[in-house]
Every structure is written in C-alpha cells, then in structure tokens.
Amino acid sequence: MGAVDLLEAVVGGLLLFVVPGLALARGLFPEWRFRGPDGPRRALETATLALVLSVALTVLVGSALLGLAPGGFAAAWGDPVLEAALAAIALVAFVAGVVRGAYSKVPPRAPAGAEEPGGEGAFALTRELDRLHREDRALARRLRAARDDGPEASEIDRARTEVAQRIDGLERGREEEYAR
Question: Fewest CB atoms within 10 A around its CB: which of 37, 92, 128, 180?
Fold first, then answer.
C-alpha cells in the first residue's frame, strides 16, 4: 500500500465518518463549547453526534445516488460522486455554523427554551441546598451545646432562621420554575 493509497484511505474515512457530521453538529448546536466544566461532556456528545450524523448522511446520500443514477455509481476516487456530495454537505453545514457563531470566541446564546426546568441548573441547586442543610445541622449542634438562655443561643437561632429562609426561597423558586 503506497503513501497515496494511505492518504486516500484516511481522507475517505474522515469524509465518510467524521467531517460532514461534525460540521452539521457544530452548525446545529453552535452554543456547545469544549471548554469549561461542561467541556468534556460536550466534546463527547459532539464526537458521538458527528459519527452518527456522518454515517447517516453517507447512507442517505449513497441511497439517493443509487436511486438517481441509471447504472448506479461507484464510490471510488476514480468517480468521487459520493465524496463530492458529502464534501458539499459539509461545506454548507460549515458555513451555517460560521453564520450561527459556532466558531467564534464568544458562544451564541442558547435558543429560547433550551434550558428546561430542572436541567443543568438543578445540580447547582442541589449542591447549594445540601450545603445549607449541612450548615443548619451544624448550627443545631452548636445550639445544643450552647446555654439555652445565653446570647450565643439567640445568635444561633437567628442564623438558623436565615438558613431556613434561604432553603425555603430556593425550593419555592424551583417549584415556580416547574409550574411555568
């Protein structure tokens, strides 16, 4: 196998299994970024989506070419109709991604309604509620250890009331978000 054959195999594999799907995934979801806390998950989602979309596009375009061409077609570099069609789809999807801001430094805003109630913000809410409940338990232990009539006990009671109000506010806010 010569160097040219290897290059053809690599370029063909990328064109069949990666490039059209990746360009389409970036065009469809321009707000997805690969940095930050969600970066690894978004990269995995994009890679998976790129593979699936590329294979689906290859099958759809290949089926269309078989149906349209009277004698069929040969998926070879000697007659690169399939490869040209996939490259054209990838180019159109890339341009759409550029127009939608997929490759800009600042990500575009997510579409309206993309964040569902209880979506990714639910993890931050759960962590904050857990932290507040731990703080309340620690204050309750301090209250038991303090003298009941001392100034420290009234200060701890006031702090527990504030924590309870913050917990109640967070829970009400989430319930209102779900009710919308």
Answer: 180
